[in-house]
Structure formats: structure tokens, C-alpha cells
Amino acid sequence: MTATLTRAWEGLRWYLKEFTGEARWDDYLAHCAEHGHEPMSRRQFERERADAAEANPMSRCC
Fold first, then answer.
1. Among 17, 27, 32, 46, which is disulfide-ready with 39 (CB 3.0 to 4.6 Å)?
2. Averaged pLDDT of the chain
């Protein structure tokens, strides 16, 4: 029973990280570590993501 709950929790946690974009931050940090780059601040990272999303809208309601 505990293993099932643990797997369910990990699955939910993974889904939420993907849905909210938190996984992109983790991927960015891993990329910087792999290539020896100094990562930008979380605030700057989110600002650049927001700017890119605004400049290249993927869908519109109208």
C-alpha cells in the first residue's frame, strides 16, 4: 500500500511540475551545470520565459 501511494504521489508531483513549468527551471539548471555556465537568477529566467511567450503566442481565444 505504501509503495502504491508513493508512486501515486511521485506521479502527481511530476505532473504538477510539468504543468506549472517548474520542470523547465530544473532542466535549465541541469543544462547550465552540464555546460559549466553560470545560471541566471530565477527571476530573470521567468522574465525571459514570459517575454518569449508574449512575443510568440501559441494560441488565442479569439
1. 32
2. 90
